[in-house]
Design a protein that fits this description.
The complex is a heterodimer of chains A (156) and B (254). With 156 residues, chain A is of the alpha+beta class. Chain A has helices spanning 19-30, 93-103, 123-129; strands spanning 8-13, 35-44, 66-69, 72-75, 78-87, 109-114. Helices cover 19% and strands 26% of the residues of chain A. In chain A, a hairpin with a 2-residue loop joins strand 3 (66-69) and strand 4 (72-75). In chain A, helix 1 (19-30) runs antiparallel to helix 2. The longest helix of chain B has 18 residues, at 232-249. The relative contact order of chain B is 0.17. Classes of the chains: A alpha+beta (156), B alpha+beta (254).
Chain lengths: 156, 254
């Protein structure tokens, strides 16, 4: 199945999401075995002030929190605004839509289908993972970051 | 006949608001009462109550050269005292914020003296002498030009103008300088404009509701507000300017 192309979807809510909302949604989505990979995207929230006169000062931010998904702790580094997913088949789509409708009650959302994740390793990926990189890891984490992806093993 | 400025074209409420805010004859509606001390705290240039540091001796003491322009122009209070030049910077959300960067620069140039406004795509900075700045900043925060949720006082890391709003209606702020208190619904600044923690919270009032924002905004927005394409007069004006500029590029000869 090396050359298999899995369908991908993007959930784009009308508002940037609170950590509690992300937690609720992910717990509904990640329990679905038809979803292979989930990528949280959003504006970065750094732990310290990155530039300006206060550079280096601690940056307490209520959106930079640790959430719990299927028993695993996930530290959010972003204010989540998009959720990209790779699916086993298109049949999971109604379940994703149902989960979104359940969680996004105060604002609207859109589910888009297309290609949203990296398909080939970049130079940075090559430098970090080498020539035999596991394709499932590509695009899930910034290769320059020291953090790895979170692997949920709840349903397998 | 004396020249009467028209300020800008447009037949929608957005255009009307732009004209109103730019017109120094229009008295801006005061909506909140943020004190002088609070403004000084949020700007973070000096400790409240401390003396104004100076960049040069007061004008009366330093002996001005014999200059005809200096005789015509009366110095502002800050210039007279030799204050430092300091700034305040605002980021305005494109989701119906009452002000927007270009308008801010226009209205400051029309309304205030001795200012140096700088316009950028999603933020606007205004520099002037410190004690003048505090007076102007108070007017910019306390009047209808400001909304606690859709406008941010941000000296650095200003990103937020073009982003979707937070679930509670606040504009994104990487440094979360202000937070919406869920209990009383009031927005409180917990950091100064560059992101340093404040000793005490500064309350800037409750966010205005959507109806008020839509009626007071100066930003066209096709989805949440007034679409630019709905403003026939503004569109006609911009098309005329565009046509004239393009033709002039070919140096037409009559």
């Amino acid at each position: 199945m090396k050359d298999a192309i899995y369908p991908q979807v993007r959930v784009a809510p009308e508002r940037l999401l609170n950590p509690e909302t992300v937690e609720q949604l992910l717990n509904r989505l990640a329990a679905n075995p038809g979803i292979r990979r989930i990528l949280l995207k959003g504006q970065s929230i750094p732990a310290t002030v990155p530039y300006g006169p206060a550079r280096g000062a601690v940056n307490p931010h209520s959106r930079r929190q640790t959430i719990r998904v299927l028993g695993e702790e996930i530290q959010l580094h972003t204010h989540v605004g998009m959720i990209d997913m790779e699916l086993e088949t298109d049949e999971v789509l109604p379940a994703i839509r149902a989960a979104c409708e359940e969680v996004f009650t105060k604002f609207t959302f859109r589910i888009q289908q297309g290609r949203f994740m990296k398909t080939k390793p970049t130079v940075s990926d090559y430098a970090k993972y080498g020539p035999n990189a596991d394709e499932i890891l590509l695009g899930l984490v910034d290769p320059k970051s020291r953090k790895g992806p979170v692997i949920l093993q709840g349903y397998r | 006949m004396a020249y009467k400025p028209q300020y800008g074209p447009g037949s929608t409420v957005v255009a009307e608001n732009r004209r109103k805010y730019m017109n120094p004859g229009y008295k801006l509606e005061t909506i909140r009462d943020v004190t002088d001390e609070d403004i000084v705290l949020v700007m973070g240039h000096r400790a409240p109550g401390s003396a104004y540091p100076t960049a040069h001796p007061p004008l009366a003491e330093q002996g001005e050269p014999d200059c005809p322009i200096r005789k015509i122009v009366t110095p502002t209070e800050g210039a007279k005292a030799g204050d430092r030049v300091r700034y305040i910077q605002f980021a305005d959300s494109m989701y119906n914020a009452p002000s927007q960067p270009y308008l801010r620069s226009y209205l400051e140039a029309y309304r205030f003296r001795g200012v140096d406004p700088g316009t950028l795509s999603g933020r606007q900075i205004v520099e002037c002498r410190e004690r003048d700045l505090e007076k102007y900043a108070k007017e910019l925060v306390n009047t209808e030009l400001f909304d606690p949720a859709r406008v941010g006082i941000r000296g650095a890391t200003v990103h937020g103008h073009s982003l979707r709003l937070d679930e509670d209606g606040m504009m994104f702020d990487m440094l979360q300088r202000c937070v919406l208190d869920k209990k009383d619904g009031v927005v409180k600044y917990v950091k100064n404009q560059i992101g340093e923690a404040l000793d005490r919270e500064v309350k800037v009032g409750k966010p205005m509701d959507e109806k008020w924002l839509k009626a007071h905004t100066t930003i066209y927005h096709a989805v949440v507000g007034t679409a630019y394409r709905d403003d026939a007069e503004a569109l006609e004006y911009i098309q005329r300017i565009h046509a004239l500029r393009t033709k002039y590029g070919f140096m037409p000869k009559e």
